[in-house]
Amino acid sequence: MPPMAVVATDLRMLNGFLVADRLGKVVGRVECPMYGTAPDVPDALAVRSGFLARRRRVVPAEAIDDVDDSSRVIELSVERDDLTSFL
Question: What is the mean pLDDT of residues 54-79?
């Protein structure tokens, strides 16, 4: 498995970042980290698509290709339609 840029970035510090898929389409903004396998280490992000949107998408850590701290943008290695949505 190739090294990923997200390893150096703590997923807990990405609230408010803009998320774009591999085609450059905006997915939404990071709402909060999601915990699954370990209670103290997040393994995914909850991303809300709009200001009043109820649906959110799950962005697993493996789908994050690059995190640009200066522009506060997260680039994904998958397309927007490949992400799971939830309420």
Answer: 93
3-state secondary structure of 7: helix
- Model-level pTM? 0.82
The three-point CA angle 10-56-21 to 5° equals: 65
pLDDT of residue 82: 93
Q: What is the mean pLDDT of the chain?
A: 86
- Cα 72 → chain centroid: 12
CA atoms within 13 A on the CB side of 3: 4
Q: Could you tell me if residue 83 is inside a domain?
A: no
Residue 37 lies in a domain: yes
Q: Is residue 81 part of a domain?
A: no
Q: Which residues contact 78 (CB under 8 A, 6 or more apart)?
A: 21, 22, 63
**HSE toward the beta carbon, residue 17, CA cutoff 13 A:** 26
Task: Judge whether 30 lies within some domain.
Answer: yes
